[in-house]
């Protein structure tokens, strides 16, 4: 249900075309390679946003995720950082004690 006098078109950009991942179109310039290496998620974010800091955040989260996966597989649970953005960044630290 839309507000009085509003329609679907008032809330949707009918000209919007989403970006799709095509590995052949990922950036290969020096800046992208320096930030992302070969990580497709990071390269995609850099390509679609043209924002170096956004790409850097992506690769940082990829690295943190890989470290957490490795720690978990070895039975070593550690401090995890959880990030989300809604108008501004907020950060929580969640401590998970190591299991005996």
Tell me what the structure shows.
With 100 residues, the chain is α+β, with helices and mostly antiparallel strands. It has a domain at 26-94. Helices cover 43% and strands 14% of the residues. It contains four helices and two strands; from the N terminus they run H-H-H-H-E-E. The chain has helices spanning 8-11, 30-36, 40-49, 52-73, and strands spanning 80-86, 88-94. The chain has a two-stranded antiparallel ribbon with strand order 1-2. Helix 2 (30-36) packs parallel to helix 4 (52-73). The protein is flat, with a radius of gyration of 19 Å. The relative contact order is 0.09.
**Global shape:** flat
Number of strands: 2
pLDDT averaged residue by residue: 79
Oligomer: single chain
Binned strand content: 5-15%
- What is the structural class? alpha+beta
Helix-strand string: HHHHEE
Discrete helix count = 4
Separation of the first and last Cα atoms: 53 Å
Radius of gyration: 19 Å
Largest β sheet strand count, sense and barrel closure: 2 strands, antiparallel
Low-confidence stretches: 81-88
């Amino acid at each position: 249900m839309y507000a009085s006098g509003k329609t679907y078109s008032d809330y949707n950009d009918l000209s919007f075309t989403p970006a799709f991942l095509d590995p052949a179109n990922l950036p290969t310039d020096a800046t992208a390679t320096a930030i992302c290496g070969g990580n497709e998620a990071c390269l995609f974010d850099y390509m679609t946003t043209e924002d170096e800091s956004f790409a850097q955040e992506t690769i940082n989260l990829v690295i943190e995720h890989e470290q957490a996966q490795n720690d978990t597989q070895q039975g070593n649970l550690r401090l995890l950082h959880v990030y989300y953005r809604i108008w501004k960044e907020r950060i929580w630290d969640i401590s998970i004690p190591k299991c005996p």
